[in-house]
Amino acid sequence: MKITKILSFLFLVTVLISCGGSEESDGPIIIPPAKVRAAFEMTISPTDQNVLLLDNKTVGTGEFTSEWDYGQGNGFVLDQPGIEEVRFDVDGTFSVTLKVTNEAGVTQDVQTVVVANSAGGICPNGICVTSNAGVLKDVSTTFLVGNITRASKVNSVGIDSEILKTHFSSITSEYEMKMDRMHPSQGTFDFAAADAIVNFGVANGINVHGHALIWHNATPDWVKNFSGTDAEFETMVKNYITTTVTRYKGKVASWDVVNEAIEDGSGNPLRNSVFKQKMGDDYIKKCYQWARDADPDCLLFYNDYNMASSTGKRAAMFKIVDSLGDLIDGVGAQMHINYNFPSKANIQAVADGTVSRGLKLHFAELDVRANPDNDQTSLTSERAGLQKAKFTEVVKIYNSIPLANKYALTVWGVRDNETWLTDFWGHIDWPLMFNEDYSKKPAYDGFLEGLQ
Ligand code: XIL
Questions:
Q1: Best residue among 152, 171, 172, 175 to mutate for probing ligand 1, ranked by most atoms within 8 Å of CB
Q2: Res 124: pLDDT
Q3: pTM of the complete model
Q4: Which of 100, 161, 230, 362 could be bridged to 332 by S-S, CB 3.0 to 4.6 A?
């Protein structure tokens, strides 16, 4: 292989020298033009929900021409200076295409527009809802509002599934779509609980976010103590990811492929999980590639905690994300936060870092501890008010990012009495938006206010 490369290099050099001639070789070096990457942003007109504002964001040196196809059957028209205003009066799904041509060739940016006049016109982010003041999922027209669930809740007709259907537009499995549940022993898969959750989402028009394919804390013992070679281990992981993502292709809109791969503390190195040990540092990249191959339309996220509170961890997370290039679509920032911490500026920094990379942002796993120091025995109205304000702050930050970067904001639990934090911290807290009796807390209104 090497010898062939050297030979072809020598051949190339010989050809170049002979082509160059002897005297005329000092001419200008001509750099061939590169293709210009077509890019545009679209927003709904603030004054008319049937009008789309199209902003050609293509940048490039040299001459290029831009043409639009609005997906309404009229073919391409030349881009005009400024923002294009295009009416969409008819219900349906349309592909808006921007085609950019220069000497080197053609590139295109294609985006989808959904129009439902019953929902007011063009649906923000393609999500059509009939506005229902006071209900989170209806008021949130530009991103999904998520919560977690369990098979036992969606399998039974009752208040738990009603709460999801009424208030939320996205669901995440709390623990039944993790490896220890779905791949409990070598050679066997158990998708019963995951199927129930996914089918519930699909049947009720609720988005399903898959969480989480690889997580050190939900790795089954047989994988931790894998008996086989490293190559066999890698084949097993590939088969698990391929099988799982393929099963839910077209039903699960997004997956957290790898969860919490970064160590806390000095230098924030990669966690020394069994995956890193057996597959090397690029185990993460391999996992994303397998997920991508299994369902190219699925959005792939990297999910981790302390993204706002630790600048070091945030930097380590963005380093991983950058190394994944096109294999990743978004960042999942777990929002396990306190009523008074981290600061607004640090939460904003997570959003800014994600937006500047052109990635989608999932504010995942939001819960706001009202009793981090365990000095309260009940939720006082003062703490409930401060907690509400933190909910508003988080939602406002999320709601202010550009449409193209939005995806979902997921709350980690419905009722306070069910929060995972009680076990995790070993004492009582009230971090969610509903009381044990399913009544709404001020935190719910805080979320709503963040949407204003
Ligand atoms: C937690 C669940 O809430 C618990 O029920 C389960 O026992 C352990 O996992 N970060 C994550 C989530 O990514 O998957 C965790 O969920 C909470 C921390």
A1: 175
A2: 81
A3: 0.75
A4: 362
